[in-house]
């Protein structure tokens, strides 16, 4: 049984959109719409004529009107024109559809379009040149579509079957919610919230066209679950191998990464393989680093198992390894192919790890979701809703600033001081609690600079206490914290950047606040055991 979502096939001219869409429509017994043909019918003239009269604008406007109408219907199979989804607004109209983009090499396009009737925007005498130029212009726009299928070596029937299989797999996967992360200039990727992934993830993998060869990098504390995941994938036709690592912050190093890279080479992991990171933030970070560097890059799917990883570290494509001098000093951006979140995996998570995740949730609430803060204050929330709200806050910021040039720095609220606490305590203080303490210090700094109120500090302190997170720190030397701060990645040349809150959902990046105030702010949470 297939859901009623429209199925939309798009892509460059000559990729076979209409032929494939007709086959899919037949299979599911649904109405088929070809947007180009429909517009020709409505305008009473051919598209070639419209373009040759210089009326492209009229054509695009008719497309928008038609797309709006189609987006209000269900159960359709739609083939669009090659330029239909180039604008963000058109793409948005079809966001609720099952959307596929067909790709083909330039050689194939030239071959396929050479004998066709003339097409707008292509000159028969300069066909290759025109195709290359138009593709260059459109590549970024096509990249915004998350499902791509290469048509080079497939017949229309095989392409239609691939699409049908993906749609059917997705329907079997019990996805309860999904959201798309759209990093600027990079392909988007989906985050699925789904139930029972240990027994259903094969469907999700098939629905995104993931590689059939996979290596799971798993937290060694999750042996039973990772074996179950592997067996499930093997039973569904995947060639899946399993490697385990000790998920401790002290192990998030180049040495651990090298051990894994050697293991990948030993098991003859090929370029066609994909990594599955199955664990908390430590496994997610090492897994992403390994995926980014082995053979210059494998794809990775993140299956986070801690709350912190579900709401934060598995999304956004950052990964970090620690150096002795400081935390996360080594790293790359490595966006996953997909993130699969199953809140049921949290059943076995110890309470202190749940609290650690809630520190990042409080951070996201303070950055951009007042309702999230209210849910935490009332201590009344549905975990799926809580995770989803966090994903929305983070996905929005990652989309606006994928490589942390400006706005994304706000996600580091609490992290500048937090990382210093983690390093100085040699990871006795874990990431979540350290971020909580870091948010308090940043807020104290804002108060000392007359930019925030004591009321805000008390609100954050109450939230942390309510969720069993520390609000003070013992046996740490202030000078050690100040030295660790020197290595923060946000500092540039002689400038030190900090994120402070002016109020809830109103954060600001400041540069070079007075050293004396930084010291005072840190001291306000430190105490020595007598
Ligand atoms: P973690 O990965 O160390 O996991 C915490 C503990 O929970 C471990 O002992 C682990 O074995 C255990 N565990 C994991 N899943 C479990 C489950 N389902 N049931 C029972 N036990 C389970 O820690 P974390 O808090 O998930 O992640 C912290 C790390 O994430 C830090 O290294 C931090 O720097 C990193 N991080 C990265 C980003 C990013 O954007 N890349 C963002 C935030 C944090």
**Which percent range describes the beta-strand content?**
15-25%
* Category from helices, strands and their pairing: alpha/beta
**CATH fold-level label of the largest domain:** Rossmann fold
CATH architecture of the largest domain: 3-Layer(aba) Sandwich
How far the N terminus sits from the C terminus, by CA atoms, comes to: 68 Å
Number of strands: 18
| Annotation field: number of helices | 21
Overall pLDDT level: 93
For the sheet with most strands, the description reads: 7 strands, mixed
Task: Give an overview in words.
With 530 residues, the protein is of the alpha/beta class. The chain has 3 domains: 7-171, P-loop containing nucleotide triphosphate hydrolases (Rossmann fold, 3-Layer(aba) Sandwich); 175-349, Rossmann fold (3-Layer(aba) Sandwich); 407-527, Dehydroquinate synthase-like, alpha domain (Up-down Bundle). The protein contains 21 helices and 18 strands. The strands form 5 sheets. The chain has a 7-stranded mixed beta sheet, with helices on both faces. A 5-stranded parallel beta sheet has the order 2-3-1-4-5. It binds nicotinamide-adenine-dinucleotide (NAD). Residues 219, 221-222, 247, 249, 252, 279-283, 285, 305-306, 308-309, 312-313, 316, 318-320, 328, 345, 348-349, 353, 356, 431-432 line the site of nicotinamide-adenine-dinucleotide.
């Amino acid at each position: 049984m297939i859901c009623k979502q429209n199925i939309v096939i798009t892509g460059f001219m000559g990729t076979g959109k209409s032929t494939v869409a007709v086959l899919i429509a037949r299979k599911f017994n649904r109405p088929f719409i070809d947007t180009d043909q429909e517009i020709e019918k409505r305008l009473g003239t051919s598209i070639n004529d419209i373009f040759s009269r210089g009326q492209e604008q009229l054509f695009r406007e008719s497309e928008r009107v038609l797309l709006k109408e189609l987006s209000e219907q269900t159960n359709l199979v739609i083939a669009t024109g090659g330029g239909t989804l180039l604008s963000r607004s058109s793409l948005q109209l079809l966001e609720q559809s099952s959307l596929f983009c067909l790709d083909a090499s330039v050689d194939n396009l030239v071959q396929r379009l050479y004998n066709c009737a003339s097409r707008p925007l292509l000159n028969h005498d300069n066909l290759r040149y025109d195709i290359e130029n138009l593709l260059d212009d459109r590549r970024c726009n096509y990249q915004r579509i998350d499902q791509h299928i290469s048509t080079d070596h497939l017949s229309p029937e095989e392409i239609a079957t691939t699409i049908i299989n993906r749609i059917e797999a997705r329907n079997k996967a019990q996805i309860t919610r999904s959201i798309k992360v759209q990093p600027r200039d990079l392909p988007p990727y989906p985050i699925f919230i789904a139930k029972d992934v240990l027994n259903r993830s094969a469907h999700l993998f098939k629905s995104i066209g993931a590689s059939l060869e996979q290596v799971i990098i798993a937290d060694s504390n999750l042996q039973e679950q990772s074996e179950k995941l592997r067996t499930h994938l093997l039973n569904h036709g995947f060639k899946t191998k399993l490697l385990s690592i000790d998920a401790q912050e002290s192990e998030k190093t180049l040495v651990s990464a090298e051990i894994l890279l050697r293991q990948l080479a030993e098991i003859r992991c090929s370029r066609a393989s994909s990594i599955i990171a199955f664990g908390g933030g430590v496994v997610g970070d090492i897994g992403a680093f390994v995926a980014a560097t082995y053979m210059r890059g494998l794809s990775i799917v993140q299956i986070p198992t801690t709350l912190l990883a579900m709401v934060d570290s598995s999304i956004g494509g950052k990964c970090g390894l620690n150096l002795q001098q400081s935390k996360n000093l080594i790293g790359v951006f490595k966006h996953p192919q997909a993130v699969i979140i199953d809140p049921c995996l949290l059943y076995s998570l110890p309470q202190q790890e749940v609290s650690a995740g809630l520190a990042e949730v409080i951070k996201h609430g303070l950055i951009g979701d007042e309702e999230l803060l209210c849910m935490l204050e009332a201590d009344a929330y549905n975990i799926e809703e809580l995770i989803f709200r966090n994903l929305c806050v983070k996905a929005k910021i990652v989309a606006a600033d994928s490589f942390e040039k400006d706005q994304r720095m706000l996600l580091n609220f609490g992290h500048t001081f937090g990382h210093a606490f983690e390093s100085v305590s040699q990871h006795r203080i874990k990431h979540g609690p350290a971020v909580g303490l870091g948010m308090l210090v940043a807020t104290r700094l804002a108060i000392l600079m007359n930019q925030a109120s004591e009321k805000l500090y008390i609100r954050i302190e109450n939230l942390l206490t309510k969720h069993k997170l520390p609000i003070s720190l013992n046996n740490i030397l202030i000078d050690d914290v100040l030295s660790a701060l020197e290595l923060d990645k946000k500092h540039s040349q002689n400038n030190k950047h900090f994120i402070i809150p002016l109020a809830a959902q109103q954060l600001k990046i400041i540069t070079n606040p007075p050293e004396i105030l930084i010291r005072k702010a840190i001291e306000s949470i430190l105490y020595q055991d007598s």
